Amino acid sequence: MASSIDRIVLSNDRVTVQKLRDVGRKLSKNLASSVDKLLEILDKLELVLSNLDQDPAKPIQESLVLPMKTLISDELLRHTDDDVKISVTACLTEIARITAPNAPYNDEHMKEYLKLMADAFEKLSGVSGRGYEKAITRKNFKDQNILDHAGP
């Protein structure tokens, strides 16, 4: 018999699975959308991914398949907008964190991801724009998260 904690965890997993499926579908169906629409969807995906632990439960892993495939599509990896590329990089970085120590993609796709990440860092040399703000926000979030979990 499942405890109340187990039921809460299962309920949270179901919610997470549904969120991943919804945002994965939206992303896959809106690859040709406006930059603003793509950024909105990518931001939602990044938020959901950032709340996942490494090696999540099997249903969550299964619901990651569509977003993972869509993120490495030519439409996103070779998008002309720098902010979209930076958002894709942020999502791919979360995917890499979640699947670590295993690589989430084959060697060719990992090379594409690493090139995209290097290009994104190059674009961050200026201290303005959405990409820079996103990087600083993510860094501050990660720093605070580390501090919150650090011992005395």
TrEMBL record:
GO biological process entries: DNA repair; mitotic sister chromatid cohesion
Highest taxon of source: Eukaryota
Keyword Electron transport listed: no
Keywords assigned by UniProt, alphabetized: DNA damage, DNA repair, Nucleus
Gene Ontology cellular component list: nucleus
Keyword DNA repair: yes
PANTHER family, sorted: ANDROGEN INDUCED INHIBITOR OF PROLIFERATION AS3 / PDS5-RELATED, SISTER CHROMATID COHESION PROTEIN PDS5 HOMOLOG E
Name of the featured protein: Sister chromatid cohesion PDS5-like protein, putative
Lineage, highest ranks first: Eukaryota, Viridiplantae, Streptophyta, Embryophyta, Tracheophyta
